[in-house]
Amino acid sequence: MASKIEVLDQKITTFTQHGIEYICITDMARFKHAERTGVIIGNWMRNRNTIEFLGIWEQLNNPGFKVIEFDDFKKQAGLNSFTLTPKQWIEQTGAIGFVSKAGRYGGTYAQKDIAFEFASWISVEFKLYLIKEFQRLKEQEFQQLGWDIRRNLAKINYLIHTDAIKQNLIPDTLTPAQISHVYADEADILNVALFGVTARQWREQNPGAKGNMRDHANVQQLVCLANLETMNAYLIQQGVTAGERLQQLNALAISQMTILSRQALPFTGLQNIDGGN
């Protein structure tokens, strides 16, 4: 999936392929001259220092790199008659440091280290801003990945939780509507233990919100919720009543949220639940 960053008012596309992060140097070249991107990239690749850099990078990262063809290019680099394009470099050396893409996000892409080298050739200032914005993008992606992993963990634990409900709390004689009510009641035990409100109360308090309260939970709450679901499944299997489970789960939520919040976001606290339902 492609992403965009903005460097000195120039939008630049990035994407990852086979674990390699690429940045569009065609977009970068537009910063220097919007109508001559191919010429700018070609002039950069004619440089002997560029050829040596590209060759060393490929030898370090690409077992299939054709060194003999690389040596031929290196011998010609710097001559007035020498020309080279990313496409020629890819086809003749088996390079993986460049990727040519067509379509919506078309252009020449270079692995991030190569792209940063190209940015130096364009402008030192441009390179520094590019690195800063690229790092910011990676931090955002990492944070989102962490949230997704924890959200999926909560969903997986929810399957364990609902299986325990099915095996221990739902007789075969219940109607689908009654079964749904049992699941909702058990979900609300977790909701009250962690969030202090039922799903219905949360919807009444947040009429314009999309999704449910769990979709709006922070990372710490999602981690805690996953643990509560596992614990509740165990308590159900042990035959503990709903009221007793609510109190134990609430105490566990308070303990875990206090610990988790010390490591990240400020914690506003949870209310102790004195009675069960």
**Biggest sheet character:** 5 strands, antiparallel
Specify the number of helices.
Answer: 11
Radius of gyration: 28 Å
Low-confidence stretches: 169-174, 264-269
Instruction: Please give the number of β-strands.
Output: 5
Total count of domains: 2
The N- and C-terminal alpha carbons lie at a distance of: 48 Å
Q: Which whole number gives the mean pLDDT?
A: 78
Name the strands of the widest sheet in spatial order. 1-2-3-5-4
Q: Indicate the percent of residues in helices.
A: 55-70%
Element-level helix/strand string: EEEHHHHHEEHHHHHH
Structural class: alpha+beta
Portion in strands:
5-15%
How does the overall form come out from the CA principal axes?
Answer: elongated
Provide the descriptors you would attach to this structure in a database record.
277 residues; alpha+beta; 2 domains; 5-stranded antiparallel sheet; 5 strands
Question: In a few lines, what is going on in this structure?
Answer:
The chain has 11 helices and 5 strands. With about 280 residues, it is an alpha+beta fold.
Task: Tell me what the structure shows.
By secondary structure, this protein is α+β, with helices and mostly antiparallel strands. It has 2 domains: about 5-120, no CATH class; about 145-260, no CATH class. It has 11 helices and 5 strands. A 5-stranded antiparallel sheet has the order 1-2-3-5-4. Helix 1 packs parallel to helix 6 and helix 7 runs parallel beside helix 10 (about 220-235). It is elongated and about 85 Å long. Residues about 170-175 and about 265-270 have low confidence and may be disordered.
